[in-house]
Each structure stands twice: as C-alpha cells, then as structure tokens.
Design a protein that fits this description.
- Helices cover 32% and strands 33% of the residues.
- The longest helix is centred in the first third of the chain and has 31 residues, at 4-34.
- With 139 residues, it is an alpha+beta fold.
- β4 (72-78) and β5 (83-89) form a beta hairpin.
- The chain folds into 2 domains: 1-34; 37-138, OB fold (Dihydrolipoamide Acetyltransferase, E2P) (Beta Barrel).
- The chain starts with a helix and ends with a helix.
- The chain is built from 3 helices and 7 strands, in the order αβαββββββα.
Length: 139
C-alpha cells in the first residue's frame, strides 16, 4: 500500500525515536546513581530504617560541640529541634565554625551518628543553603 520511500521514512523515524528513548533512559539511569538526598536531623529521627546510601545532612553547628583530635573532627549538627553527632576525617573548610550553617555529605551509622566524607560550610554571613533554610523555617 505504501511506497518504498514512505516505508524508509517510517523506518528512519522509528529508529531515531528508539535511539532517542534509549539515550534518555541511559542518561536518567546514570543520574539516578549520582543523586544525593538532603535531610535534616529531624528527618533522620523519623526514619524507619537506616539505609547505607550517601546523603547530605544540613543544619547549624551546635555551640561548644566541635572537638578536634589529630585529623578527626567531631561536632553536632542541629536544626534547633533535633541533633545529630557527626564525625569527619579530613581538612575542614576555613569558614566552618560553631553557630554557622553546614552541610555534611556521607553515611548514617544509626539515627544518632553520621560519618561525613565531605563538609560544606557556608561562604558568607547571609548565605544558607535553601534546604537548610527550609528545614529551619519548618521547625
């Protein structure tokens, strides 16, 4: 019923759409592995079970909670309702201090202890990560 040229066009369009769909699927699948979810200490306390996936915890560094021993830093992140103990080995940012906003990336050991692999400190006195600001405003 259809001519040879029309069949070739349909085949070309079908192959192009298939390749586009496959490419989109592969891109989304690779991005899924790199997504890191943000949570506050209050969100952690309401978890049913602790998963072994990388997450970000944000809040304020509690006053008088920073302890530095050798190359390890222990401190407490709070959202003014709940607190989470954090342990980090490595170089801390210059702007990291008590009473300031911080985001720690790493893994939960349990609902009260977090092992950070990266510490992100805010860069000026007015900046706060949007997730931290929202979490603090909710509380």
């Amino acid at each position: 019923m259809y001519g040879h040229k029309v069949k070739l066009r349909f085949l070309f369009i079908f192959v192009a759409l298939t390749i586009l769909a496959l490419t989109t699927f592969l891109i989304l699948k690779s991005l899924e592995e790199n997504v890191i979810y943000f949570q506050s200490p209050s969100d952690i306390k309401t978890l049913n079970n602790v998963k072994k996936e990388k997450i970000r915890i944000g809040g304020m560094v509690k006053e008088s909670s920073i302890e530095i021993r050798n190359n390890e830093v222990n401190f407490i992140i709070t959202d003014l309702n709940n607190e989470l103990n954090v342990s980090y080995s490595g170089v801390i940012p210059n702007l990291f201090s008590e009473g300031k906003g911080v985001v720690a990336e790493g893994y939960l050991k349990d609902k009260n202890f977090f092992v950070a692999t990266k510490i992100l400190a805010k860069h000026d006195e007015n900046y706060m990560p949007p997730e931290v600001k929202e979490a603090l405003q909710e509380k």
